[in-house]
Amino acid sequence: MIEFEAVYYDGRTSARKPVRVRGYTLAIQIVGEGLRLEVPLGKVRVDPPVGGTRRALHLPDGAQLQTDDQRAVEALFPRAHPLEGWVHALERRWVYALAAVALVAAFAWWSVVDGLPRAARIAAGFVPAAVEVNLGEQSLGFFERNVCGPSALGAARQQALQRRFARLTAGLADGYAYSLLPRACRGIGANAFALPGGAVVMTDALVKLARNDDQISAVLAHEIGHVRHRHGLRMALQAAGLAALAAALFGDATSITSLATMLPTALLQNGYSRELEAEADDYAFQRLKEIGLSPKAFAEIMLLLEKDHKRRSGGESKDYFSTHPATAKRIERALAAP
Amino acid sequence: MALPSTDGGSAANAAGPGKRHAVEFTADAGEYFRIWIVNLALTIVTLGIYSAWAKVRKRRYFYGHTRIDGETFEYRANPLAILKGRLVAVAAIAVFYAVGYFAPLYQWILWIPLAVFGPWLLVRSLAFNAYNTAYRNVRFRFEGSYKACLKVVIVYGWLVFTGFLYPYFKHRLIRFVAENHRYGTARFEIADFKKPFIGAYANAFGFGIVLMVFLLGLMFLTVQGKAPYLFFGMAVLFYGGLFLLFAYIRARTTNAIWNAVRIGPLNFESSLRASDLIWLYFSNLVAITFTLGLATPWAAVRAMRYRASKTTGIASGPLDGFAQAEAQQVSVAGEEVADLFDIDIAL
C-alpha cells in the first residue's frame, strides 16, 4: 500500500483541503476532514512529470489532488506516460543534457555551413525569373529615387560600354533580360551592382577609375555572375532561413534578449555574402576567358578599387566583418585563374 | 496571460489590512537548462514535430515553479492541439513572408486582413492561454469577444499612426485585455492606470528627443568629415538608448498595470525598477551572446525570478472562495499564429 499527503480540491472552488491518500491495487482512498472518498485508479488521470514540479491527479468531476510526493505518484502510476516519462528521465541526467548540447551544436553548425545555402539554392530553383525581375525593379526604384541620377558620360562612350556589355551577355540564354544602366550615384564612389533579374548598375566613377575598358568588362562579368547565380534571391532566402533558425533555437528568452541573436546572425550573413562574391569572381574569370579577355584585368581593377577605397575612407579592408573577401585574396585568385 | 505572473506575493511595503502573499519562483536554472536542451534536441531529431510537446513541458516547468500562498500554477494545454495550431500558423506565416520578400511593395495589402484578423488572433490567443492556466484547480478564462476587440482597434487603433498617441491606444487595449479576464467566476477589475502608464511613455519620449538631438549633432560632425569614426559610437548610442528606453518603459508600465489590477479580494503590488531591468537585460544579452545561446534558459529563469521577487499579492480575505466557472472549449489556432507573429499583449 502506498500512502501520501496531498491537497484536495473539489472542482467547484479554490478551497484547499489537506488529505491523506492511500493507494491500493485498484483504487485510491482519500481521507480528510469531513471527506472520505474512493476513486478507481482507472478514473484518475495523472499529468506527465516535468522536473521536480508538483504532481496533479485529475479526479472525476473536475476534482483534483496535488502532491509533492513524486515517488508515491510514480509507484501508483508507473507507466502512465511512456513517451514523456522517457523524456523526463533524459532531462534528469547531465550526461544526456551534454549529449543534447553536442547534437544541437552539430545541427546548428551543419545548417549554417551547408544546410541553409543548399536549401536556399534549391528553393531559388522554384522561384520563377519573373519574381526576380519584380524584386530587382523594386530595389532599382529605390536607387533611382534616392541615390542615383542619369549618367554624365557622353553618348558615344555609353554606347561603347553597352557594346562591351552586350558581348559579355551574348548567348547566355539563361532567361534573364540583361541591361546595363550607367548612372551617376552620390556617395557610393566607384562601384557596380547587380539587381536580381538582370539589371546591372555601374557608376560613372567606376568608368573614370578604370585604366582601360577590359577592366570595366571584368567588373561587369562579376556582376553578371551575381545575376546568373541568383545571388540576390539566395541571399534573401538565406537571411530568412537564418532568422527562422535563430528564433527557433534561441528565441526563448524575453524579446529584448533575442537581440543577442542579431550580432552572430549579421556576422554569418557577411560570411555568406563573401562566399557569393567568390562564386561571382569565379564566374567572371571563366566568362572573361570565353570572350577572349584575361582575368588579369580583374586583378588590375581590384587593385585600383582598393586604392580608391583606401583614399576615400582612410581605412584598410579587412576580411572579417566585411561583405567582400579581402582584395589581396581576390587578386591572387584572379591571377591564378586557369 | 503569458506567464503565470498573475499573482501576488512578496512583502515589501507598508502594512495594510490585507495579508501579503509573496510570489515565489522556485525554478532551478540547471534543471531548466537540461529540460530546455533535451527538448530542443528532440525537436531537431523529430524535424520540429516534437516542438509542441517541448513548448508544453517548458511552460509547465515555469508555471509549476510559480507560487502564491504556497500553491503553484498549472499549464494544461494539450500538445496535440498545439501541434495542429502550429501547422496552420506555419502555412500562414509562409504566405506572409513570401509576399514580403518577393513583392515588398505589396506587403501592405496583407496588413489589411491582418488588421481585421489581428484582433481575432489576439482574442483567441488570450482565451487559449487563460483557459489552460489554472491555480488551485480553478481555471482562468478570457471572455473578450472579437467584436469588442475590433471596436477597440477601430476606435483607437488609428492613434498608432500619430506616433506619440500610441501609448493611449496601448492603454485602451490593455484595459480591454485585463477587464475580460476571469479567475473562475471572479472578474479582473482594473482601476485607472492611464496616468502612470502614459507618463512612462512621455518620459521615455522626452529622453528619446534629447538622444536624437545629440545624435544629429554627432552626425553633423561626421558628415563634415571631422570625426569619421563616430559612426560606430553613434550606433552604440542609438541602440544603447533604445535599450534603456525599452527597459524603462517595461518596468514602469508593468508596475502601472499590476498596481491597478484587482481580482476578488486580491490586489497586487509590482515594484520593478528600471535600473534593475537594464542590468538584467544587459547581462542576459551578454551571457547569451558569449555562450552562443546556451545561457538562454538561465536568462529566462533569472528574468522570471526577478519579476516574481518584485510582485506581491495583497489579499483582503481568504483565497478559498473563488468558484470554478462552466467548462468551455477553446481552440488553439489563434494562439499559435499570434505566437509566430510575435503578438505579445501579455499583462
How much of the sequence of chain B is in beta strands?
Answer: 5-15%
Mean pLDDT of chain A, as a whole number? 86
Tell me the strand order in the biggest sheet of chain A. Answer: 4-3-2-1-7-6-5
This entry's quaternary arrangement is: heterodimer
Provide the domain count of chain A: 2
Helix coverage percent of chain B: 55-70%
Could you tell me the radius of gyration of chain A in angstroms?
33 Å
SS class of chain B: alpha+beta
**Which descriptor suits the 3D outline of chain B?**
globular
- What's the helical proportion of residues of chain A? 40-55%
Calculate Rg of chain B over CA atoms: 22 Å
Largest β-sheet summary of chain A: 7 strands, antiparallel
Largest interchain contact: A-B, 60 and 66 residues
Task: Write up what this structure looks like.
With 338 residues, chain A is an alpha+beta fold. Chain A has 2 domains: 2-80, PH-domain like (Roll), CATH 2.30.29.30; 128-336, no CATH class. In chain A, 54% of the residues lie in helices and 16% in strands. Chain A has a 7-stranded antiparallel β-sheet with strand order 4-3-2-1-7-6-5. In chain A, strands 8-9-11-10 form a 4-stranded mixed β-sheet, sandwiched between helices. In chain A, α3 (94-125) packs antiparallel against α8 (231-250) and α10 packs antiparallel against α11. The longest helix of chain A is centred in the first third of the chain and has 32 residues, at 94-125. In chain B, strands 1-2-3-4-5-6-7-8-9-10 form a 10-stranded antiparallel beta barrel, surrounded by 5 helices. Chain B has helices at 29-45, 51-64, 79-102, 107-131, 146-157, 166-179, 194-223, 230-258, 274-290, 296-309, 333-340; strands spanning 19-25, 66-68, 71-75, 133-135, 138-142, 181-183, 186-190, 261-263, 266-270, 311-315. Among the domains of chain B are: 85-192 and 326-347, no CATH class; 194-255. In chain B, α3 packs across α11. Chain B is of the alpha+beta class and 347 residues long. At the A-B interface, α2, α3, α4 and α8 of A face α1, α2, β3, α3 and α8 of B.
